[in-house]
Specification:
Largest sheet: 6 strands, mixed
Distance between the termini: 27 Å
Shape: globular
CATH class of one domain: Alpha Beta
Helix content: 40-55%
Strand order of the largest sheet: 6-4-5-7-8-9
Radius of gyration: 19 Å
Structural class: alpha/beta
Order of helices and strands: EHEHEEEHHHHEHEHEHEH
Number of strands: 9
CATH superfamily of one domain: Metal-dependent hydrolases
Strand content: 5-15%
CATH architecture of one domain: Alpha-Beta Barrel
Number of helices: 10
Length: 272
């Protein structure tokens, strides 16, 4: 039994369509999966249409971009009601701000004499128009303004550039509250990326219900630490590859069985 509770499709920044992702997972003998696109449940909703062809247990999920103090924090939400009005409104606001932010950066480039076509940027963002700085960079290279992604970011798209526009991110506590109102289980994604592990205790006070202990790139020491915190605070333990469709070796990843057991037990307890 193989388990992966953190994957992305081309409805956010993944390479594969939901159907392609299910096909790869099914061919690699996954039994439990959660599509957790950034700030969108549309990939999950599309994937449900293909479960007859690729049967498996597909858990509703989304990865929400939040901010705590001055740091980016990603919160995984499992078993959310994807039609919950507050959740839908939150995700739409994040999506709309992402689109507007990218468009403003293209306009800022024009002010510097870089006459980049917005339609060229959207071409790289794909049909779902999940657009960001990497898509702007690819369009700039295609149009001959720079030669490499690194040079684009070094010269134009870094955080200190006059081109840069800050992200909109929802407050972590607010996101946790909305996820729970939508019937979901909020889990801290890839805690090993946090600047300081001590903020996990702040998230516990906010009502977080789990930690992505078994994230694919966590070290054994990190796993041991996050296991201890989870067990001490009655948090569920989850795991995922964060697969985006580029690194196919992640398809050999599987979270421990305890992840699906604890997730389902918590879900059933919340349903009463």
């Amino acid at each position: 039994m193989k388990i992966d509770l953190h994957l992305h499709t081309n409805f956010s920044d993944g390479k594969l369509s939901p159907e392609q992702l299910l096909k790869f997972a099914w061919e690699n003998h996954y039994a439990y999966l959660s599509i957790t696109d950034h700030d969108s449940t549309l990939g999950y909703q599309e994937a449900t249409k293909h479960l007859t062809k690729y049967p498996m247990d597909l858990i509703p999920g989304v990865e929400v971009s939040t901010i705590y103090q001055t740091s980016d924090v990603h919160i995984l939400a499992y078993y959310v009601d994807v039609e919950n009005p507050d959740l839908v409104e939150m995700l739409k606001k994040i999506y709309d701000s992402r689109y507007g932010r990218a468009k403003q950066m293209v306009e800022n480039l024009r002010q510097l004499g870089i006459d980049l076509n917005w339609e060229d940027v959207l071409k790289y963002a794909g049909q779902h128009k999940y657009v960001g700085r990497p898509h702007i960079a690819r369009a700039m290279i295609e149009n001959g303004f720079c030669k490499t992604i690194k040079s684009v970011f070094d010269d134009y798209l870094n955080n200190d550039s006059p081109v840069y526009v800050p992200k909109y991110r929802i407050d972590t506590a607010n996101a946790i509250e909305i996820i729970k109102q939508a019937g979901g289980i909020p889990v801290v994604a890839h805690p090993g990326r946090l600047e300081d592990d001590s903020v996990l205790y702040d998230f516990i006070d906010m009502g977080i219900e789990g930690i992505e202990v078994y994230y694919a790139s966590h070290s054994s020491g990190q796993i041991k630490l996050y296991e201890q915190i989870a067990l001490e605070h009655n948090l569920i333990r989850t795991g995922g590859s964060d697969f985006h469709g580029h690194d196919f070796y992640y398809l050999n990843y599987s979270a421990p069985d305890i992840c699906i057991k604890e997730l389902k037990t918590r879900y059933l307890s919340k349903r009463g």
